[in-house]
Amino acid sequence: MIVIYGIKNRLNPIKARLSDVIQHCMNQALGLPEDKRSHRFIPMDKEDLYFPGGRSEAYTVIEINMMKGRKEETKKQLIKALFREIETEIGISPIDIEIIIKEQPAHCWGFRGMTGDEVKDLKYKVSV
């Protein structure tokens, strides 16, 4: 699951395109199928989003929640691809993008009535 935060007047107009770019990077770096898109957008009022100095109102936070198992190099490739593709396709400078990968053990995930460590039919690999 991916949660994207930003100032609403900047985030709302680009949500669909940003979702496409993020999913493309997830597909390429992690091998996720296209239908595994799980994005949540949190558009915020300007007074509710405090961000570091030197950033513009385009400041966007991308939290990527995933099961543990990906290699360090795979996660770094994903982060670099996101910076590159978001700048190229959406026009947000890397200085205005913050990416956080949060990993949890498979047993901490619950979907389709079971925990992640019980699932045997994923159409993608977690250990990439």
UniProtKB/TrEMBL annotation:
Transmembrane segments annotated in the record for this chain: none
Provide the protein name.
Tautomerase family protein
Q: Which Pfam families match?
A: Tautomerase_2 (PF14552)
Name the source's superkingdom: Bacteria
Q: Which InterPro entries match?
A: Tauto_MSAD (IPR037479), Tautomerase/MIF_sf (IPR014347)
The record lists the organism as: Photobacterium rosenbergii
